[in-house]
Amino acid sequence: MPYSAPRVLIIPGLHDSGPAHWQTWLQGQYRDARRVTQRDPSRPELERWAERIQRTLEVAGPGEWLAVAHSFGSLALAKHLADHPGSPIREALFVAPAEPDKFGLAEALPHHRLPRRSRLLASSNDPWMSAASAARWAYRWGASYSNLGPVGHINAEAGFGPLPVAKSWVDAARARHAAEQRPRHAEFREWAFAI
User: Fold this and answer.
1) Gyration radius (Cα) of the chain, Å
2) Alpha carbons 190 and 142: distance in angstroms, whole number
3) Residue 171 DSSP SS3
4) Are the beta carbons of 153 and 176 closer than 8 angstroms?
5) pLDDT at 121 over 80
6) In this structure, are residues 36 and 11 in contact, taking their beta carbons and an 8 Å threshold?
7) Per UniProt, which keywords does this protein have (predicted)?
8) Sheet containing 7-11: which strands, arranged edge to edge?
9) Span 130-171, pLDDT tens digits
10) Which of 64, 65, 140, 174 has the most crowded Cβ, counting Cβ within 10 A?
11) CA distances from 133 to 100, 101, 120, 128, 193 (A)
């Protein structure tokens, strides 16, 4: 069976991610990337958003995915992963999650390690979630944590068109997956030669 790299799933936050947003830039870097499109991206409804992720995956067909979520989309992704332990999402990148308490959703989110390898990128001056809260959620979800410094909400308004760290994460995750797919070769002395 030929090797197939995991595809990239873009999960925007409130009001979607416009043409100047780094998520749109990232989607353009991978021809097989897909975007989760909410019916109403201005209404933060956790259950509906999480189920929309599931529906997008079902429609896209079989295969593994690398999910890249921003803001409220990060909360929907965490909910999806907790509700669907068999999800085809292989790894997850949470960028500048929104503070669940702002939406009264802290109890609706998982408070345990998620069943996938993940990373959370935060900012020291994000108006949507403090760095301390981001570190707590990363710890709960078992995600590695990086604070990018005083860079706001890591969106177009904060000056992020391209976000090279997100592309580096995708490329590294794909490389890990490719390495795991390579057949393990026997030591030379283990080969038996028929004459």
Assistant:
1) 18
2) 39
3) helix
4) no
5) yes
6) yes
7) Hydrolase
8) 34-35, 7-11, 65-70, 89-95, 117-122, 144-147
9) 999 999 999 999 999 999 999 999 999 998 889 999 999 999
10) 65
11) 10, 10, 12, 10, 60
Q: Which residue has the tokens 């939406």?
A: 103
Q: What is the DSSP string of 97-141?
A: PPPGGGGT-GGGS--S--SSEEEEEE-TT-TTS-HHHHHHHHHHH
Q: What is the pTM for the complete model shown?
A: 0.91
Helix, strand, or coil (residue 10): strand
Q: Which two tokens stand for residue 62?
A: 């079989």
Distance CA 91, CA 77 (A): 11
CA distance 114 to 103: 21
pLDDT tens-digit series, residues 65-100: 999 999 999 999 999 999 999 999 999 999 999 999
Which amino acid is residue 137, in one-letter code?
W
| C-alpha pair distances (Å), 50 with each of 38, 133, 136, 162, 178 | 10, 21, 21, 26, 28
Cβ atoms of 146 and 122 closer than 8 Å: yes
Run of H or E residues at 92 = strand 89-95
Structure tokens at 6: 């995991």
